[in-house]
Automatic annotation (TrEMBL):
It holds the Pfam family PTS_IIB. SUPFAM superfamilies: PTS system IIB component-like. This is PTS sugar transporter subunit IIB. It comes from the Bacteria. The keyword Transferase applies. It comes from Enterococcus hulanensis. Keywords: Sugar transport, Transferase, Transport. The keyword Cytoplasm does not apply. InterPro entries: PTS_EIIB-like_sf (IPR036095), PTS_EIIB_2 (IPR013011), PTS_EIIB_2/3 (IPR003501). Residues 4-97 form the PTS EIIB type-2 domain.
Length: 97
């Protein structure tokens, strides 16, 4: 599988997105999946996804932003709470294939 680019966002681009990014990094490393993870503010999503660089967005601040390219968008909340974490990770892996 070619390297995938994933955008991880939260309200300020610092706290919860850092926790989610770390969890994703560990999971991808464990599974041998090549990814590039970037961390930004949720307010920057529309601008960042318009050039088709990112293959996926994981957000802890909602998922109802404009998505003109219909790339997969996942809530990162399960990675913070643990509720539904394994299913969410399975869904993320499936979406990257």
């Amino acid at each position: 599988m070619e390297k995938k680019n994933i955008l991880v966002v939260c309200g300020n681009g610092a706290a919860t997105s850092t926790m989610v990014l770390q969890t994703l990094k560990e999971m991808f490393d464990e599974k041998g999946v090549r990814v590039e993870l970037a961390q930004k503010k949720v307010q920057e999503v529309n601008e960042l996804i318009k050039d088709d660089y990112y293959d996926m967005v994981v957000s802890t601040s909602g998922t109802d932003f404009v998505n003109p390219h219909s790339i997969p968008v996942f809530s990162g909340v399960p990675l913070l709470t643990g509720l539904g974490k394994e299913q969410m990770l399975d869904d993320v892996l499936a979406a990257l294939k």
